[in-house]
Amino acid sequence: MAAARSLPRIAVNAALDFALAALAVPLAGWIADPAARGLPPLWAAPLGAVALLAAGVPFRLSRQHWRFAGLGDLAAVGAAATVGAALLALIVLPFAPLSPNPAFPFVLALVQTVLLAAPRIFYRHARIRPRVAPEPAVDPARALLAGAGEDADLFLRALAQDRRQSLRVIGLLGFGSRQTGRRILGQPILGTVAEAGAVLARLAREHRLPRILVVVSADLPGATLATLLEDADRFGVLVRRAPQLTALDSAAAHPPAPGRPIELRPVEIDDLLNRAQVPLDREAMARLVQGRRVLVTGAGGTIGSELARQIAALGPERLILLDNGEYALWQIDLELGERHPAVPRLALIADVRDEARIRAVFAAERPDLVFHAAALKHVPMVEANPAEGLLSNAAGTRHVADAARAAGARAMVLISTDKAVNPTSVMGASKRLAEMYCQALDIAARSQRDGGMRCITVRFGNVLGSTGSVVPLFQR
Q1: Cα 84 vs. chain centroid, distance in angstroms?
Q2: Residues 413, 394: Cα–Cα separation, whole Å
Q3: Could you tell me the pTM of the whole model?
Q4: pLDDT value at position 136?
Q5: Which of 289, 404, 408 is nearest to 352 (CA)?
Q6: CA dist 97 to 36, 42, 47, 94, 400, Å?
Q7: Candidates 3.40.50.720, 1.10.1270.20, 3.40.50.1110, 3.40.50.300; correct CATH number of 282-472?
Q8: Which residues contact 180 (CB under 8 A, 6 or more apart)?
Q9: What percent of the chain has pLDDT over 70?
Q10: d(CA 429, CA 351)
Q11: 141-273, what's its fold?
Q12: Residues 141 and 211 sit within 8 Å (Cβ to Cβ)
């Protein structure tokens, strides 16, 4: 069906190529013999066009999308023109010379390449310009772009399709001094990213200070981005991130619908960290969780709630959410009910410090896997309340581990912290005690012939966006 819909466009492309290739034959004859002593006969023009179309079949010349014509497409045009001219020379020249100039086939290949490539380049360039008039009510904000490579080129092309024309780019910042002074789609490169402060100062003196600095480069280092933020802050310039390349590619290919301009986003804290994301082995995770009963303690917390979301997406037989905070537990239970209504789940209010309650819950639910995330995590608070920290983190872990083992769980995962390494605080020491207890249980399980519950410990560092962490504090 899709192939049938594209046939008219392919036919139009082939017809245009045929006409241009035919026109190239007399034009090449005139260039090869300016005195016009012997232009090629009339029958040579359609024959030359047929030769080019035949040569263009392996290069898929008529199937090219002119709107997205690139260097590869132009190379295919040149190759088809060369092969077509060679075919014409081999078939015709031995019987009827088309020009007194023996270089005629080479001239023909060059002329056909130019005539066929020119409309493709022109059409692609014409599509860069806006196809709709900008709304006059919008006052475009002056913008400076950080990045002067493919990302900037793609962003400018997408911006040209923005109906609202909400940004007016006044220049770009590149990554090397050799780029300075050059232009990308008509926009000048005013300096390097490292020179952002000096460039902004110069623009301020010229009364052309941008309102927004848009980071279009996807791989700008975190340290460089932090310096850029400082420079922009000195001049009161907002810093925003451009959408990802995949989103911009779609925007550049198709004009955005009215009311859907390019969406810029604020610079986030994880942009400054500049850490590569570690891909998850979701296939192995699914094998672990699918068809099993899973219990998550601290399910209303930052880590526990995210664990619950990931586990629910993997299709467990039953998901038990346990927390001592009513509101946080209600929130995650409501969210999972909306996202994964088919997953059986149970929300239980319980405190890991209550050993009897924990044993009763585990005996009733008999989970296969336990993720223990319930804990007191704030160092100053636990330092001020050491007994509470020890009861929740150390004794609470022992209660959960013992109850899980008694209920026949296959494995328990303890969510620990990097502060348990050579602890210098009560919180770190309490989590280290919890780790030691779980390690002892795991050693005992591995020594049993019939196996037993495995105890696994993972250590988290600073969790971005967690309640009470420094990131929300800095953002506020």
Answers
A1: 43
A2: 15
A3: 0.52
A4: 46
A5: 404
A6: 14, 13, 14, 7, 95
A7: 3.40.50.720
A8: 174, 189, 190, 191, 192
A9: 79
A10: 21
A11: Rossmann fold (3.40.50)
A12: yes
